[in-house]
Specification:
By secondary structure, the chain is an alpha/beta fold. The protein has twelve helices and five strands.
């Protein structure tokens, strides 16, 4: 997963101005990362991930939403319970997006977008298989109702959004919010310890030999992000 330190992300800049805007999240927002198969010495426990990432993100971004198909993908019991608790608070800390809530016109748009988006993934709307289902369902729903921001660490979802014009996915208006931007935001707001932020960054973006060749080290990352997003923005 590449870290872009060359150009600023318009979507992230918009969120800096108004963090209360709705952000739709992917399953990896709640599922603790596990990269042991590619060389990590440990996997994140849910408790560590909750303290380092999930709770700070909820504190800073009060309008987080999850699609019903993504909620079904939370196979970790603690992740499921946390999300369900957030849905049950008054007012809700997490908003559930259900296709059944769409108007007839919105549902027609959603179905059209779903078929177009699915063509670039492993999801088949006619079989309703699990592969890439959450990402496709989320993005199609967002496109139907006009939501703008999707937080994901999934390479397929990022490609669908960032290469929307070239691929013709009809997702030109949606903006991807990368995990490294979330990590940086929490660091600048003082809502995460620097050592914890460094650990999160290195685990997601600076673990493998390939990642160390294409991505900046932690210190270089901070310098590069400071250049793109000056302190006055926070």
């Amino acid at each position: 997963m590449n870290v872009n330190l060359v150009t600023s992300n318009p979507g992230f800049l918009d969120l800096l101005e108004n963090p209360a805007q709705r952000i739709v999240v992917d399953a990896n927002f709640y599922l603790p990362p596990d990269r042991m198969k590619i060389g990590a010495r440990h996997r994140y426990s849910f408790e560590d991930y909750r303290k380092a990432w999930i709770e700070p993100m909820h504190r800073n971004f009060p309008n987080i939403a999850i699609h019903e198909a993504v909620l079904d993908e939370l196979v970790d019991d603690q992740s499921v319970q946390f999300a369900q608790n957030c849905l049950a608070t008054t007012p809700p800390m997490l908003h559930l997006l259900c296709d059944s809530d769409l108007s007839e016109t919105e549902e027609a748009i959603r179905q059209t977008k779903e078929r177009i988006i699915a063509a670039y993934t492993n999801y088949d709307p006619y079989r309703d298989n699990k592969d890439d289902r959450g990402e496709v369902k989320s993005l199609a729903h967002m496109g139907a109702v006009g939501y703008l921001y999707f937080s994901t660490h999934d390479s397929t979802a990022l490609k669908l959004i960032e290469d929307a014009e070239k691929l013709g996915t009809t997702l030109d208006g949606i903006r991807a919010i990368h995990f490294y931007e979330g990590i940086y935001y929490l660091l600048k707001k003082g809502d995460i310890d620097r050592a914890v932020a460094r650990k999160l960054y290195r685990y997601h973006y600076y673990l493998t030999k390939r990642e160390k060749q294409i991505n900046a080290s932690w210190d270089e990352f901070c310098i590069g992000m400071d250049r793109l997003y000056p302190p006055k923005l926070f």
